[in-house]
């Protein structure tokens, strides 16, 4: 249980950092928001690949790529929402 939570945090950190690297810019939040966007991105990416594209889970690299894609989508949505509120 604790090991899987730590694994999700590590995957989220990697995915969030990659998303931030691909989409640089000033974002409110910091490392915690980056990790949360990465974790949520893993869920979004997993949902899209499994339910919409019909692709199953792969190895670690595939998981990072899917999580990063989801994190990029969520980061773009996050930026749109924070711009509208500001």
TrEMBL record:
Localization per record: Cell membrane
Membrane-protein topology: Multi-pass membrane protein
Regions crossing the membrane: 6-23, 30-48, 60-81
One Pfam entry name: Transgly_assoc
Coarse class of the protein's main subcellular location: membrane
Keyword flag Transmembrane: yes
Family per record: Belongs to the UPF0410 family.
Name of the featured protein: Putative membrane protein
Native source organism of the sequence: Rubrobacter radiotolerans (Arthrobacter radiotolerans)
């Amino acid at each position: 249980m604790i090991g899987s939570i730590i694994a999700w945090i590590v995957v989220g950190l990697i995915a969030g950092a990659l998303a931030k690297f691909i989409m640089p810019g000033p974002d409110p939040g910091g490392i915690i928001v980056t990790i949360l966007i990465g974790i949520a991105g893993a869920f979004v990416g997993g949902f899209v690949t499994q339910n919409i594209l019909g692709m199953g889970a792969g190895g670690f690299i595939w998981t990072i790529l899917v999580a990063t894609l989801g994190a990029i989508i969520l980061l773009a949505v996050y930026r749109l929402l924070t711009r509208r509120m500001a």
